């Protein structure tokens, strides 16, 4: 018995079976860390997303039992629990640096007792982001292997790196590489895509953009590269790919605008974006030198933060993460200010950046270059593994099918990371070497596939600029996108070995 496809070609049951097998193996590879650990991976802010999502559902008319035990949260906030980044929001404020869209997913799934649904969302987005460009590329150049294998192989190879750690992560980080793939797909293939393919990529890219504030910066930085690559590839309708990329960027800004309007109308709250930029340039030096030279000054709102920083001489108080999150007397500064002063500092961060830049442009540029380089090489998966403090912060949260937020089989004792981290680094270096070789060798890989790879590399660099330059270099931010290197190396190798002649039957193969 055979199955007849819409293009008239027949697909044998054995071909369907092989396709299902390839996808199943890729799915198992993607979920390998979850299966080995027996528990999802989570971070400090996992509770913050659940809390904000529950609150948003309440304000839009969906009351329900809170998935967070407030008495335990109070212990954290009053110092009886761990002194770390627990997100206890001030009255009448909404954290604009935390995605409302992703929070709604987290809050809804927590109420249903199925937070693992976030993992299903991660995996679905990954497969869709890889399937779409491979489908289009196979349709135009053909391959010696079916589409199912062409999609599965790169995912399987990438799963030897950080991919399965982020697939199991109850945080929106997986959508950063998904966004990079979506923007790259539109940039290279928009002129030959079907309408429904364009709409699907736009939907995927828009979801990725609104899932985290850093993703909006990532999409914005990739937009100029989309213009340049589109012009180099063809002058015919060169404007179409960057225009579609701008739609994705626009969705990110629209989400921020809607959030502000909804916060005011539904809960009489103001949206506050934590002063990550201020904290970054204080830690780097130029910001602190500027404050030392100019404070106290009522015309500079950030001087209230400078005063709080002077209450301790612990050098760790000047690190960006402690400035923004710490609450203890020795390390806390921003969080020890009144909600009104916190809002003043947050609202002043852009103006403060430009004041410091005018005062010390070379210091800012030097720090930015250093941070971007540091971020580029920070690729360990260590920050996806919950520590004791992370477990304690998330202890008040219910909603997992697998029980309480606690350590799994591989997170309680992460000693294995001393072996795995160097192996990952070597794996990524080899992947980059393969990419560079196949990009240089002429006529082995279609130019469009090479252009797709260039856009992915641009996305990895843009991620380093946004996260390292604006926030702070962290392995969590580097590792979330670095698995794109082995993914694209495998894609290039597949097309380097493709059949020389296009097989029309292969266009529709599973």
TrEMBL record:
This is Transmembrane protein. The chain crosses the membrane at residues 20-38, 118-138, 150-169, 175-204, 216-232, 419-440, 452-470, 477-496. Keywords: Membrane, Transmembrane, Transmembrane helix.
């Amino acid at each position: 018995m055979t199955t007849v496809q819409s293009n008239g070609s027949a697909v044998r049951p054995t071909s369907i079976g092989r396709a299902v097998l390839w996808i199943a193996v890729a799915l198992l590879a993607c979920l390998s860390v979850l299966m080995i650990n027996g528990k999802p991976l989570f971070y400090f802010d996992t509770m913050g997303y659940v809390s904000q999502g529950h609150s948003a559902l309440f304000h839009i008319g969906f009351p329900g039992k809170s998935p967070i035990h407030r008495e335990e949260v109070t212990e954290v906030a009053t110092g009886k629990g761990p002194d770390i980044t627990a997100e206890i929001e001030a009255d009448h404020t909404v954290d604009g640096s935390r995605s409302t869209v992703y929070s709604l997913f987290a809050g809804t799934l927590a109420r249903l007792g199925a937070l693992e649904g976030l993992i299903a969302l991660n995996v679905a987005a990954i497969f869709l982001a890889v399937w779409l460009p491979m489908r289009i590329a196979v349709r135009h150049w053909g391959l010696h292997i079916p589409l199912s294998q062409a999609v599965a192989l790169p995912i399987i190879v990438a799963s030897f790196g950080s991919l399965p750690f982020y697939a199991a992560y109850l945080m929106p980080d997986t959508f950063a590489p998904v966004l990079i793939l979506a923007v790259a797909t539109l940039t290279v293939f928009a002129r030959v895509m079907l309408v429904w393919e364009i709409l699907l990529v736009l939907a995927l890219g828009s979801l990725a953009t609104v899932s985290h504030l850093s993703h909006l910066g990532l999409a914005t930085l990739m937009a100029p590269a989309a213009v340049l690559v589109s012009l180099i590839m063809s002058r015919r309708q060169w404007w179409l790919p960057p225009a579609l990329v701008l739609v994705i960027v626009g969705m990110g800004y629209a989400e921020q605008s809607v959030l502000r309007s909804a916060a005011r109308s539904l809960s009489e709250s103001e949206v506050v974006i934590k002063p990550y930029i201020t904290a970054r340039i204080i830690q780097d030096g130029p910001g602190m030198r500027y404050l030392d030279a100019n404070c106290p000054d009522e015309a500079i709102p950030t001087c209230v933060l400078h005063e709080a920083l002077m209450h301790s001489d612990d050098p760790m108080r000047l690190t960006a993460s402690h400035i923004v999150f710490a609450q203890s007397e020795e390390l806390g500064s921003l969080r020890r200010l009144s909600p009104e002063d916190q809002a003043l500092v947050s609202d002043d961060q852009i103006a403060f950046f430009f004041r410091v830049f005018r005062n010390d442009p070379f210091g800012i540029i030097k720090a930015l270059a250093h941070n971007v380089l540091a971020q580029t090489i920070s690729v360990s998966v260590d920050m996806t593994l919950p520590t004791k403090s992370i477990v304690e912060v998330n202890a008040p949260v219910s909603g997992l099918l697998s029980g309480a937020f606690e350590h799994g089989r591989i997170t309680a004792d992460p000693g294995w990371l001393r072996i795995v981290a160097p192996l990952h680094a070597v794996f990524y270096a080899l992947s980059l070497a393969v990419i560079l070789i196949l990009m240089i060798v002429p006529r082995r890989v279609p130019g469009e596939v090479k252009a797709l790879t260039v856009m992915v590399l641009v996305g990895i660099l843009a991620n380093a600029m946004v996260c390292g330059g604006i926030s702070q270099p962290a392995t969590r931010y580097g590792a979330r996108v670095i698995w794109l290197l082995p993914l694209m190396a495998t894609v290039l190798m597949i097309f380097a070995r493709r059949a020389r002649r296009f097989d029309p039957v292969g266009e529709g193969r599973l």
